[in-house]
TrEMBL record:
SUPFAM superfamilies: DNA/RNA polymerases. It comes from the Eukaryota. This is Reverse transcriptase domain-containing protein. It comes from Oryza sativa subsp. indica. InterPro entries: DNA/RNA_pol_sf, RT_dom. Coiled coil: none annotated. Residues 163-272 form the Reverse transcriptase domain. PANTHER family: OS12G0587133 PROTEIN, REVERSE TRANSCRIPTASE ZINC-BINDING DOMAIN-CONTAINING PROTEIN-RELATED-RELATED. CDD domains: RT_nLTR_like.
Amino acid sequence: MEKKGPIRFCTLGDENTKFYHTVASVNRQKNSIRLLIDNGVEFYDNSQKLTIATSFFRQIFSESSSSDRDFALSQLYPQPENLQDLCLPSTREEITKVIHSAPNNKSPGPDGFTNEFYKKFVNKLLPDLQAIFQDLFNNSIDLSGVNHSYITLLPKIATAVQIKDFRPISLLHSVPKLISKTITIRLQKEIPKLIDPMQSGFIKGRSITENLIFASELVQSALKNKKLMLVLKLDFYKAFDTVSWDALFRVLETRGFPEKWIDGTLILLKGETDQATALKEILDSFTRFSGLQINYHKSTLVPIHLAEESKEMVTQILQCPTSSLPCSYLGLPLSTTKSTHNMLLPVISKVDKYLAGWMPLSKGGRLTMINSVISAIPTYYMSCCIWPEKSIEAIDKIKRAFLWQGEKSIKGGHCLVAWKTVLLQKQQGGLGIRDLRAHNTGLVLKLANRVLTDSDDPMAKWFRQKYLQSTIQLKPRNNDTPTWKLILSHFQILSSVEQVKIGNGRTTLFWKDQWMPQHLEYTYPVLFSFAINKECAVESQFSHNTWQLQLHPNLSYQAETELQALLQNLQTISPSPETADTRELLYPKP
């Protein structure tokens, strides 16, 4: 009976039958807003509901009326950037590229034109579009005729009866969407000039998990050194349209934009009341200048090593609730220990809930869903920590049941093939489902590789300056943080899959990394057994422009022979102090 509805929908869903019209009626009733409750009063009349919605969203999407905007922007940004290329005339090639990069299957706006329409008739539309873009960059066009949209309200929860429970979605005219996409593509080339190096979100090659790693390092350091610290997780109201346009235009002008152009923050500070007072004043000034409102009721304060009296004073100053570690930051657990199964339960629950609506799919459809969607959900959470086996097994259990039976749970007898075989590539007889343990290891290896190779990456700089100032050290020390211990544990795996091009030799293992045609520990095994430090860096074996290997005395005859052969091969190689080591994969990507 549970699958009867989906079966009928497959056979009768698009026919002109009673079943079709019943489904349409149910969907229409489900999508309509029957009533709204405002201040405890129920409203059923459409005009009254419209008044409530208009008043609510007008208040949210309105500019702050405050005039306290006295930031000295010229001191923050003393040298404007050269951004004149943003206003160059649009070419036919640029417009064509923008049109073909637009996604398909998107709802049209008031003009009724979809992206597919523009792609099909791009050659006929190009002259008119180029004229529009030309007038746009010459400030000689009036867009008021197309500057309106269809607005629909989507419920945030199943029982939405208050206007705050709905999310407004705008369907724009196609021309403004093409204009904004063109501007976005142009701006992408200039963004590196404008952003701070510490900005990690929405930057190609970077990840917001870097912020979690920085936060974890600082919190763990404070705990180990018994320092007072306050961790304040700020929550901004979602009403981003309350940003002051005047303030925004002033920032754009100061950064060098031509006249034609004109959620989650974590703050760590010393655990002192005067620091909290100064921060509150700064946040209040920022709010008055920008119009962005901070939701202190949803913000979280985590005191570390603070006495109860100090906690109460700081809480009173910042006016937000307190919490303790571990806590959630950017959707990830901020903790001073390894990730536990309990910390990852929300992710497992997310996978379980997502599959609930897809049980009726065919087996082939379920396989596609697992490969394209479900296996990707844990990726974000696996990028900076190693998952416990219990957590990986919990997700694999959900995937097994969904694949073989389309159910939430399954007994072993219903599994047609061993799970290890299912995880193999299709060329090897499997189904190509992602092995989460291997995937997790690969993501952490990527993190470790960045530490060893990215000279300009702020996160890599942090770890190198903190842990690799002198030379690489594979053995963890007592005061090392869990994050660094995690990275260290994967350096050895990197040695087996990467070829190193020597720079200064600081991050390359002399014996165990492949910076010569073969690993030296295997090419000269007897000599390797005499090494004082088998995990030494290349830099440590080179001094005063000559190779000086650190070996135990009284070498055997075979070791002496291997030493002479090695020194002969090293004659043409010397580290360059000003250049960083670089790495590349020994094996091509599949």
